Amino acid sequence: MKINEMRAMTLDELRTKLDELSEDQFNLKFRLQTQPLDDPLRIRKVRRDIARVKTLIQEKQSEAATAGGAS
User: Fold this and answer.
1) Are 6 and 14 in contact (CB under 8 A)?
2) Which of 3, 4, 34, 67 is deepest in the core (most CB within 10 A)?
3) Phi and psi of 9, rounded to 5°?
4) Which sequence spans correspond to the domains of the chain?
5) Helix (H) or strand (E) holding 8
6) Distance of CA 66 to the CA centre of its chain
7) pLDDT tens digits for range 28-41
8) Distance between CA atoms of 68 and 32, rounded to whole angstroms?
9) Are 1 and 56 spatial neighbours (Cβ–Cβ below 8 Å)?
10) What is the band of 7 on the pLDDT scale with cuts at 50, 70, 90?
11) So what's the architecture of 3-64 in CATH?
12) pTM of the entire structure?
């Protein structure tokens, strides 16, 4: 997923996406232990997407705190 698409998401959508990615990561790790993966680099991609989403969540929370404190 592109970062621009993620930036357009709301905080709730980002949290939902984080849950989906975490579940996907768990499933990929589980499948890796039981059988070879079609795309072994998928685990790396999912892990990086998780980091991106967590960063965006943190940014949006900081923006909200700053905007809330400034008014």
Assistant:
1) yes
2) 3
3) -80, 155
4) 3-64
5) none
6) 23
7) 999 999 999 999 99
8) 45
9) no
10) very high
11) Orthogonal Bundle (1.10)
12) 0.88
